[in-house]
């Protein structure tokens, strides 16, 4: 029998800016509400970033995470996954602060450096809500999202060994799978591995079905039966690629971190709306949606009782 599909929802992220959608969660209260609603809609894992509540700028402060993570935990049973990607331009130490402070069941870990270009979004807007937004986008024209082998080692030892946190390994290109295989060979992480394949970011692998199939094939060769795989795709590719992942027996991620839309030219009114849409597709395909308990078991997580929020 096919496995149930684990849905991850990333409700706010650190890429889109407040001007781009009035529905983007910004304050701790909005992030908590969006996360609880997404969990009720079927998300087993919630991938979390924080933002300055006044400006909407990505913010790594543990104090902000502590304002919404306890609320989310009280309102649902979803696995809370803290980003170590943070916001573009943050230092390694800044990106890790919230995860170290909250000791979550899961955290994201980018397993390779890449050009990360979001500057084309500048062409879509002229009237900005906040002064920081256009310069934030423009700086990515000359920006490398740094995730060296030293960075990866630092995170897996500090957070994985130190806190028992498991990782959502974010792979933006084929070489990132091989980087992860090298980390596994060092004995720094234990299976099962949760491999999140990322498509459609300018600077990473393109959102082409052939790329998805090839990365899945390579991951099978590298990790065999010791991993769970998931797919996310940026912008208009979100739902088609999530659907393809479900059809191929994988898991998937949606949420406003990855796309602000729910259909062509239609802004998503909520993260829960995206979760409901993909859940409907999954069930129409004849698959079950995984519960948080099933996700915890399959990913061998330490359990919600062992966190510090």
From TrEMBL:
Keywords of this entry: Metal-binding, Transferase, Zinc
Name of the featured protein: 3-keto-5-aminohexanoate cleavage protein
The protein's required cofactors: Zn(2+)
PANTHER family recorded: 3-KETO-5-AMINOHEXANOATE CLEAVAGE ENZYME, 3-KETO-5-AMINOHEXANOATE CLEAVAGE ENZYME-RELATED
Keyword presence, Zinc: yes
Organism: Streptomyces carpinensis
Record-linked Gene3D superfamilies: Aldolase class I (3.20.20.70)
Keyword flag Transferase: yes
InterPro entries documented for this protein: Aldolase_TIM, BKACE
């Amino acid at each position: 029998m096919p496995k149930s599909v684990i849905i991850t929802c990333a409700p706010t992220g650190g890429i889109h800016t407040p001007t781009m959608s009035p529905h983007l969660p910004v304050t701790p209260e909005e992030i908590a509400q969006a996360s609880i609603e997404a969990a009720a809609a079927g998300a087993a894992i919630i991938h979390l970033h924080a933002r300055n509540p006044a400006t909407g700028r990505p913010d790594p402060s543990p104090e902000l995470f502590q304002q919404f993570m306890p609320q989310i935990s009280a309102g649902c049973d979803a696995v809370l996954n803290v980003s170590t990607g943070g916001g573009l331009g943050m230092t390694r130490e800044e990106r890790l602060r919230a995860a170290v402070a909250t000791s979550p069941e899961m955290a994201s870990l980018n397993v390779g450096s890449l050009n990360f270009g979001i500057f084309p979004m500048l062409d879509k807007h002229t009237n900005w809500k906040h002064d920081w937004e256009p310069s934030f986008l423009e700086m990515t024209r000359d920006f490398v999202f740094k995730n060296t082998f030293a960075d990866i080692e630092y995170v897996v030892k500090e957070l994985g060994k130190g806190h028992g946190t498991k990782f959502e390994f974010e792979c933006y290109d084929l070489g990132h799978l091989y980087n992860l295989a090298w980390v596994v060979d060092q004995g720094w992480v234990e299976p099962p591995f949760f491999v999140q394949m990322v498509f459609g970011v300018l600077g990473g692998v393109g959102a082409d079905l052939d790329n998805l199939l090839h990365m899945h094939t390579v991951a099978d060769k590298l990790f065999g039966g010791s991993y769970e795989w998931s797919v996310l795709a940026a912008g208009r590719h979100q739902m088609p690629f999530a659907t393809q992942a479900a059809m191929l027996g994988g898991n998937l991620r949606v949420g406003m971190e990855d796309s602000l839309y729910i259909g062509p030219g239609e802004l998503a009114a909520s993260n829960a709306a995206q979760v409901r849409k993909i859940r409907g597709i999954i069930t129409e395909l004849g698959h079950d949606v995984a519960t948080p308990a099933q996700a915890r078991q399959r990913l061998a997580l330490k359990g919600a009782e062992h966190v510090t929020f």
